[in-house]
Structure formats: C-alpha cells, structure tokens
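Figure 2 data, in text form.
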Amino acid sequence: MDIPNWSKQSWEVIDSYFRNPKQLLRHQIDSYNEFVRKGIVEIVRQFSPIQVSGEGKTYLMHLGGLSISRAQIQEHNGIVKPLYPAEARIRNITYASPLYMDINQEIRYHGSDGVADKIEQLPKISNVLIGKLPIMVQSDFCLLNESGGKPHPDCHECEFDMGAYFIINGTEKV
C-alpha cells in the first residue's frame, strides 16, 4: 500500500501556481467573465417583464438583448475613442464600458372581467444605454486583451501587470 506524501504534493501544487503567475488571479478574472456573460443576463431575466397596470390596461416592457461595447471615452469635442486602463488612471475616470439593452413593449387592454381583450405591440427600442459597467483589467472585456496579452506600446501599460482589479475614478480597486 502506497502512502501519499501530503507535504511533498502540497508543495508541488503551490509551486505550480508560481510557475504561472496569472494562475493566482485566474479565479477572480474567470468569475468576472462569467458574471458579465451570464450573471447580468440572469439578473435582467428575473425582472422581465416590467408591468405597469391601471385604468383597464397593462403596459409591459420585455427586457433582453444585452450587449457591451469596448471601453471608450467621449472627448469634449465629441470624438469617441477607446479607453485604456492607463488613461483612466491618469484622467481620474472609471475604466468602464457602455451596457446596452433591447426593450420590446406592449399594451394589454383588459375587459371588465380582467382578461386581456386586445394586445397592442409597440415599436421595439434597440440599444438603450442602461449604464456603464466597470471593466476588470485583464478580463476578456479589457482592451488589453485585444493585443494578445502583450500591451500595445501606445497604451502605457506594464507588461507584468496581472490585472484582476478595477479602476474607479482613477484609483485601482480590488
């Protein structure tokens, strides 16, 4: 019977983390990526449709079609350009991306018995800006990942930065 050497095996696991430094933060980045891809959609699904009732009719908004664009900033002259983490730090702004949603609307008219007699479909509202989502540095949604893991020389980022933090009002937050 072979008795495992727990001490030796424990150190092998610890050593494996230090051979690949990003492995130490991988769980945080993966968790954030999962939240953006699936968690936000699930939260929206829980609150859809939104209903407002009164005077024999119900207005419904069916929420869905979420999309996120690249982190960007709009300059005072109206030009929109990509926002990199270093620029967010320098300008004391949040490194974030716009989050958009599609909304389908309808009105249901009710008779005296409360049953919907008529349903009127209203025009779909596409790409409604619902807010800005802070982007975790080095996540799948970070602009630094577009360059294959190595920072572009123009973005003024440290090549050894492992990420897994946010930049809020120019300050790094974990």
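Caption note: Helices lie at 6-19, 26-46, 85-90.
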